[in-house]
Design goal:
The complex is a heterodimer.
Chain A (H helix, E strand, L loop, with lengths): L1 H5 L15 H6 L15 E7 L5 E7 L1 H5 L3 E5 L24 E2 L5 E7 L2 H10 L1 E6 L6 H6 L3 E10 L2 H7 L2 E9 L11 E7 L3 E6 L4 H12 L6 E5 L14 H14 L3 E4 L2 H7 L6 E9 L5 E11 L7 H10 L9 E9 L14 H19 L3 H8 L20 H12 L2 H14 L3 E14 L8 E8 L5 E5 L8 H13 L6 E3 L2 E2 L14 H28 L6 E4 L2 E4 L2 E4 H10 L5 E7 L4 E3 L4 E3 L3 E14 L5 E10 L7 H19 L31 E6 L25 H12 L16 H15 L10 H5 L6
Parallel strand pairs in A: 1-12, 10-11, 14-15, 18-19, 28-29
Antiparallel strand pairs in A: 1-5, 2-4, 2-6, 3-5, 7-15, 8-13, 9-10, 9-12, 11-20, 13-14, 16-27, 17-18, 17-24, 21-22, 22-23, 25-26, 27-28
Chain B lengths: L1 E5 L2 E5 L8 H8 L18 E7 L4 E7 L12 E3 L12 H8 L9 H14 L5 H7 L11 H16 L6 H4 L1 H10 L7 E3 L4 E3 L4 H10 L4 E3 L5 H6 L7 E4 L9 E3 L3 E5 L4 H11 L1 H8 L4 H6 L2 H6 L7 H7 L3 E6 L2 E6 H4 E3 L2 E2 L6 E8 L4 E8 L10 E9 L6 E9 L6 E2 L1 H7 L6 H14 L10 H19 L13
Parallel strand pairs in B: 1-5, 7-9, 8-9
Antiparallel strand pairs in B: 1-2, 3-4, 3-5, 6-7, 10-11, 11-16, 12-13, 12-16, 14-15, 17-18, 18-19, 19-20
Helix pairs in contact in B: 2-5, 10-11, 16-17, 17-18
The chains are: A alpha+beta, B alpha+beta.
């Protein structure tokens, strides 16, 4: 026993323990919603989607559909017993369209039948008579006509106009940034079981069980206490299941309520991509002033987001874009304005980074342009603009940075470990020697604010039971979507009780266990739920300490938990022995835990405050090779140094960093959403929408965590959030591609290129740079003209 | 009736809709839900399962997309899914490495990766990064960024190599499994049907011809990588199918110094070695043709008969002067690949006629260059695919013969005749090359779509021609990004 006492826990915090479901993933035993056993009498649901981007519904004919085999229910907006609107914050999202449709893919009618095939066939047999209305599809038109889902908002510090007038150098520009389909491998799915007392048990693939509970109650017109939502795991979420899992769940609930039969709905890949929103495309316009060293003195930046037809989460998403338009740089005097444009597309929604990536891309574009104008290495310009010292450590929304030197240290470290300067020379040599293929490299930083900017969401709960055999049942309000949250929370509880995680059973997130939870979003899953679970565990542990001290007549300080054992002055006993003793002595072995983030506040009217508890930092260096004759490219090497404070689980954190980087690279390279002129998405599946494959990742891929820099804030075991920040490390690949293009002209001309950098865009940008270098008139400024002539094919 | 093994259990099916996919069969008939649907279009690999069939010696393992493969394909084969891999002493090495090295995050794509790596272990036990990347090019993961999956592959295959034969229970059972599969009669008149729909499973070309004459409305199905989409994406039901899976003489590949003949139902995987040896660029193009899972099922004949304007092999076959042997009943005729395509998805095939084999002549001095440009390097469809066949006069260095064909530039794969006219008989100078590029604008009026704009397609066609000409001039400067790992 003494030997055991001297060893450490194998599965406590800071250990690279594998995913709690890893063995189940690899054997196919992990159950997702669509894998659940069918209930007897089960109904399958299929929605009839709008074919028009904007139209008035004149008549809906469901006669044929109702008469088809197996059909049990056909519902329209009129059949929703409670509230029709399932909008998460502001409203505006009808469960089924009533009177008008506002995007291609909007559900209008839902059909339930005995089999999925029957439901689909009947849904297709629904006939709707439309009167077509003119859609607004283009963000420029929406902006010009002030066609907004929410009012514009501004953050302002100092006198940006004056700063620009006084500046030695000035550039103006515009950048279009594409959206991104989540492409979670598991599409939206729900299974609903009516329960007694008119209640509903809802198995949903959602990041937000409480919101599903609230909305199911709302559409049915019943109390929340009649609805239980259960989420064991998702096959990926990435923000796409934060609000938009609600539609299928509420539709299934309405049908289940009406028929009193269990009902399930699983969206096909095509329906999923048509029905649900994506990352917001943005149009950014900027004017910046800077000195001869490249240091910014003032910026005026307009960020216009293409929100789709309804607000959804666009309020907070555009706010976050504005919060991150500084990325790691002191902007000087700044005026940042956010516009939330309404278009007749699916309602764009949360996606890893939540507007932050779009804001950041704008300032990184600006850094590159400044550098090319001044003939400097873009890295030099970036470093000169880093926040530093007392005078330059406050953001444009008046939050003071606490770790302002960390990023510079990290940059120095990565420059060395990635061998930046020698490789820069090697790249120049290569480019001189090669006519067709060119290499490029970029090192870019990330500073990402951690906390929901909607302050009240920064709270969480947990529930822990210790059973008499010493095994533990753990539940918390966060959801598992692959990010390893459950594993981390398990490790946290293991650490508190000093027992291995195999004694701690993680269970499905359920609204009847932990109520009123926030979505698992904003990278906050472990920060909030980990702390709530720690608090629950601490409560039980303290009871055990107090009991043991009294029972063994020792002081509480003499009770120590270590590696499955409990140390009691001169004797030891196993954890489970102490639990048995405590139970027999009538000690409560169950507790809830609760946590709310301290210190944060934000006054949106003044656009000032401390919206973020802390910042997470990262730096990435990417090298690419491009083919100037076709625009094709390949990532050759990536080096990343990322800050997770003291890591709860280095293996999981590195997984998040690599995966986030890959997703960011995809967003900015091959993932292109294309709509036709009638507003129909032309890339509704993986045949046309290309997320990165294995060969798109660099064969040299080095990821390190910053060592010995625990979070200065009192987070759970001094860790930092890791979900979203690494996505923006992918910006380095985008900048590296531009670097390679710019090499065609000796880095004198900044390539004008919108995101994503598809091979086609790279081709045209290269063409325009090489045209500029031979002083012929530019034939293709950007890719706008090529987008407009896109047409339907195949 | 069809017969097959699900892992080690013999299964016979008589009454089933032959339109049923293997994925739905597993999930809905057997409740085996480890295999996932991610896209139902053969693009994401979440549904990957492995089929084993008797090979020349031992068993041959192939990863396929269960989401678009149809149940009759299983006849005479062993179906292996992620639930079947576990070993008596625990997880299969592939599973163990994937779990231990953090190869899964959300876990939804994981069963597909596990199965692709399992097949890799059987087919290329030497492992390695390049083989792994190729094996998983058709498996999309949205969580990991792939690095830990590649590491898991390297570790798992190392573990397998270190074991004495057998490395797992599949090896241990292989002799018995092979015997059991060979016992399954592949005789005539096998079929699978339900009340409405029928599938025939002929075993000889004669039977195919006969069956198609009797049922001219039937659709031939080889790999179902295109027809499967009609079923899962367009929700069509095909009432009569003729499966070519078991027709050995339509899968034969024979070659000598003068020609290569490939049975129309030979899979692209099976064609690869022969074509790559004769025409290295053909091999490289096939490496970028869809994914391993698709190439294991897709056939040369299918790629021709579907007559897609963006099929990748037709431009190469046209450039190589390939001919197609068509058959109807006992009558055969031979048509050039060049004349086979009549319009968008329309071919020269008459009612009741099918492609029996493809004949590719081998000519002295001939060099083939072929390139595709797509948004993503792997597992993507061409925006433009260009194929260039040249014969240079060794003495004069003039172009004796030239054939150029493109995909993605017109409603069908098509020759660049104006361009050929300029190059034919000419010496390869910069001026000539630019004239030839300009001539492409006479040859093609490409369209804009979600993959590329027409202007880009025009420019790229010229770029590919220039690239081919550079190669013809024996310039060894690397010209493609795929030359770099």
């Amino acid at each position: 026993m003494e030997a055991r006492f001297k060893a450490d826990l194998v599965t406590g915090v800071t250990r690279g323990k594998k995913h709690e479901s890893g063995d189940k993933h690899v054997t196919g035993a992990a159950t997702y919603v669509a894998d659940r056993l069918s209930f007897a009498n089960q109904l399958y649901l299929h929605a009839h989607l709008s074919d028009y981007a904007h139209a008035r519904i004149k008549a809906i004919d469901t006669t044929t559909a109702r008469s088809m085999p197996g059909v049990a229910a056909v519902i329209t907006a009129e059949d929703v017993p409670g509230a029709l609107d399932i909008g998460p914050v502001y409203g505006g999202d009808p469960l089924l369209a009533r009177d008008v449709v506002e995007y291609v893919g909007q559900p209008v009618v839902a059909v339930a039948a005995d089999t999925a095939d029957q439901a689909r066939a009947a849904a297709h047999a629904v006939r709707i008579d439309y009167e077509e209305l003119r859609p607004i599809l283009d963000i420029r038109e929406a902006l010009e006509r002030e066609h907004f889902v929410l009012d514009p908002h501004r953050q302002e510090r100092g006198d940006a106009d004056g700063a620009l007038q006084r500046a030695r150098n000035r550039i103006d520009g515009e950048l279009e940034i594409g959206g991104q389909e989540h492409f979670y491998l598991e599409g939206q799915a729900v299974a609903v079981m009516p329960t007694e007392d008119d209640g509903m048990l809802v198995y949903s693939s959602t990041q937000n069980p409480t919101e599903i509970q609230k909305l199911v109650a709302s559409v049915l017109g019943i109390d929340m206490n009649a609805v239980t939502v259960d989420t064991r795991r998702m096959g990926g979420g990435f923000g796409g299941k934060e609000t938009q899992a609600a539609g299928p769940a509420c539709l299934a609930a309405v049908v289940a309520n009406r028929t009193q039969r269990p009902t399930r709905m699983r969206l096909s890949r095509r329906d999923d991509t048509l029905m649900t929103g994506k990352r917001h495309p943005f149009l950014a316009r900027y004017q910046v002033g800077y000195d001869d060293t490249g240091r910014l003195s003032g910026v005026i930046i307009d960020l216009a987001a293409n929100c789709g037809y309804s607000p959804d989460l666009s309020g907070a998403i555009v706010d976050r874009a504005m919060f991150h338009v500084d990325n790691a740089y002191y902007l000087g005097d700044a005026r940042v304005t956010g516009y939330r444009c309404k278009t007749h597309l699916a309602s764009n929604t949360a996606f890893r980074g939540f507007g932050g990536p779009q804001g950041m891309l704008v300032i990184e574009e600006i850094m590159d342009r400044i550098a090319r104008g001044l003939g400097l290495d873009p890295l030099e310009v970036r470093r000169r603009n880093y926040y530093d010292g007392a005078a330059r450590n406050t953001t444009h929304y008046y939050q003071t940075l606490e770790q302002d030197g960390l990023l510079d240290e990290m940059t120095t470290q990565l420059v060395e470990s990635a061998d930046y300067h020698a490789r820069r020379e090697a790249i120049d040599t290569f480019n001189d020697a090669h006519r067709v293929l060119k290499r490029g490299m970029a090192l870019t930083p990330v500073k990402f604010g951690i906390s929901f900017t909607t302050t009240f969401l920064n709270q969480a709960g947990a529930l822990i039971h210790v059973y008499t055999d010493g095994s533990i049942h753990l539940n918390h309000g966060g959801t598992e979507m692959g990010q390893g949250l459950n594993t981390k929370v398990q490790q946290i509880v293991a650490e508190v009780f000093q027992i291995e995680t195999d004694r701690i059973r993680i269970t499905a997130t359920r609204t009847d266990k932990v109520p009123n939870t926030s979505p698992t979003a904003a990278s906050s899953g472990a920060d909030l739920n980990g702390m709530a679970a720690r608090n629950a565990a601490d409560t039980i542990r303290q009871r055990l300490v107090d009991f043991a001290a009294a029972h063994f007549r020792i002081t509480p300080e003499e009770v120590a938990f270590w590696n499955g054992m409990v140390y009691l002055r001169n004797e030891t006993m196993t954890f489970e022995a102490l639990i048995g003793l405590a139970y027999q002595s009538r000690i409560s072995l169950s507790s809830t835990g609760y946590y709310r983030t301290p210190k944060i506040h934000y006054d949106r009217d003044r656009a000032a405050g401390k919206p973020f508890y802390y910042f997470a930092y990262g730096v990435a260096c990417s090298e690419v090779i491009i083919d100037t004759q076709t625009g094709e490219y390949r990532l050759l090497r990536t080096d990343i140094l990322h800050d997770v404070g003291q890591s709860l689980n280095p293996a999981i954190d590195i997984g998040q960093i690599e995966g986030g980087y890959a997703q960011g690279v995809g967003w900015l390279t091959t993932e292109e959403l294309v709509w036709d002129e009638s507003g129909r998405l032309m890339t509704p599946g993986p045949a046309t929408y290309k997320i990165p494959a294995a060969s798109d990742m660099p064969s040299a891929f080095h990821v390190d965590l910053v060592e010995s820099r625990p979070n200065p804030e009192d987070t759970v075991f001094r860790s930092k959030a890791v979900g979203e920040p690494p996505l923006m490390l992918g910006i380095s690949a985008w900048c590296a591609i531009k670097d390679a293009i710019a090499s065609v002209d000796g880095h004198r001309t900044h390539p004008v290129m919108d995101a994503p950098a598809t091979p086609e865009r790279v081709f045209w940008a290269t063409r325009s740079v090489s045209d500029a270098s031979t002083s012929r008139p530019a034939r293709h400024a950007g890719s706008e003209r090529h987008r407009s002539d896109r047409a339907v094919t195949e | 009736m069809i017969e097959f093994l699900i892992h080690n259990t013999l299964r016979q099916e008589t009454r089933l809709d032959p339109n049923l996919t293997i994925l739905r069969y597993l999930r809905e008939v057997h409740g085996k839900t480890g295999t996932k649907e991610g896209c139902a279009s053969g693009d994401c690999g979440a549904c990957t399962v492995v089929l084993a069939e008797p090979g020349d010696d031992g068993l041959r393992y192939q990863a396929i997309n269960a989401c678009i493969a149809l149940v009759p394909t299983l006849h005479g084969k062993q179906l292996i899914t992620v639930e079947d891999l576990a070993q008596p002493d625990g997880l299969h090495p592939v599973q163990q490495a994937m779990a231990d090295l953090h190869g899964s995050q959300c876990g939804f794509c994981t069963p597909g990766f596990v199965m692709s790596l399992f097949a890799l272990g059987k087919n290329a036990p030497e492992g390695g990064r390049a083989n792994t990347v190729e094996a998983i090019a058709g498996n999309l993961c949205r969580c990991t960024g792939y690095r830990p999956i590649i590491d898991a592959s390297l570790q798992a295959l190392e573990v397998m190599r270190q074991r004495e034969w057998p490395a797992d229970t599949f090896d241990a059972d292989s002799v018995e499994t092979r015997q059991r599969l060979r016992k399954i009669a592949l005789g005539p008149d096998q079929s699978l049907h339900d009340r409405l729909n029928t599938s025939h499973l002929p075993t000889t070309a004669d039977e195919v011809a006969d069956c198609l004459e009797r049922h001219p409305e039937a659709r031939l199905v080889a790999g179902a990588t295109d027809l499967g989409l009609d079923i899962t994406q367009q929700h069509q039901t095909v009432s009569r199918l003729i499966h070519l899976d078991h027709v050995a003489d339509l899968q034969a590949i024979v070659f000598d110094d003068t020609s290569i003949e490939i049975g129309a139902a030979a899979s692209l995987t099976d064609c690869h070695a022969t074509l790559a040896e004769a025409f290295p660029d053909f091999g490289q193009l096939l490496d970028r043709f869809a994914s391993t899972q698709i190439r294991n099922r897709a056939t040369l004949g299918g790629n021709l008969a579907t007559a897609s304007p963006i099929g990748d092999t037709p431009p190469l076959l046209i450039a190589l002067d390939a001919t197609l042997v068509l058959r109807r009943g006992t009558r055969q005729r031979e048509v050039p690949a060049d004349g086979f395509f009549h319009g968008y998805r329309r071919t020269d095939l008459q009612t009741g006629e099918f492609i029996e084999r493809v004949r590719i002549p081998r000519k002295a001095n001939q060099r083939l260059f072929a390139y595709k440009v797509s948004k993503r390097l792997d597992d993507d469809i061409s925006a433009v695919c260009g194929a260039f066949s040249f014969a240079l006069d060794p003495a004069s260095q003039q172009i004796q013969r030239v054939r150029i064909a493109f995909g993605g530039m017109a409603a069908t794969p098509a020759r660049a005749r104006a361009c050929e006219a300029i190059l034919g008989g000419a010496a390869l100078t910069g001026d000539i090359i630019e004239q030839a590029c300009a001539a492409l604008n006479h040859d093609y009026s490409p369209i804009s779509d979600a993959r590329a704009s027409q202007d880009y397609r025009r420019e790229i066609a010229g770029s590919l021609l220039r690239r081919a000409c550079t190669r013809l001039q024996d310039n060894h400067e690397p010209l493609t990004v795929t030359d770099y790992a």
